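USER: Fancy drafting a protein?

ASSISTANT:
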Amino acid sequence: MQHMADVESAGSSKQFQAKMQSRNDAAIYLGYLLPNIQTQLVQSQIAKTGMENQLNYAQGLKNFHEKQRLYFYPYIFENANANIVDWAKQTVKIYNDLQKINLFIVFFPYLILISLLLILSQIKFRKLC
């Protein structure tokens, strides 16, 4: 029953993930122009609490549930006794987001802003002198 509900809602789930990804992309592009947004994105990325991390976690959770479903469904539909299941294999799983932080991408928007301010200040300074 749960699997049928997952299959039925797959379309809207993909739309939601695409919407969240485009929202995250828009925030990244705004971060190139606004340093406060870039700082928030960097801190979220370091803490692994950003939208990209959330989308990766949701995909990892979906994969985990798929593995569990494929493992248990044969036992469920064969009306097998619970003693047949190897419960030692069922351990606590921990999600690890192995996404690396690229320092160039972190500092590039700041370098753009600093360069832009330096260029503008040089132009203004030359006009004054």
Remarks:
- The CA atoms of residues 61 and 67 lie 10 Å apart.
- The helical segments are 2-8, 10-33, 35-47, 51-77, 103-128.
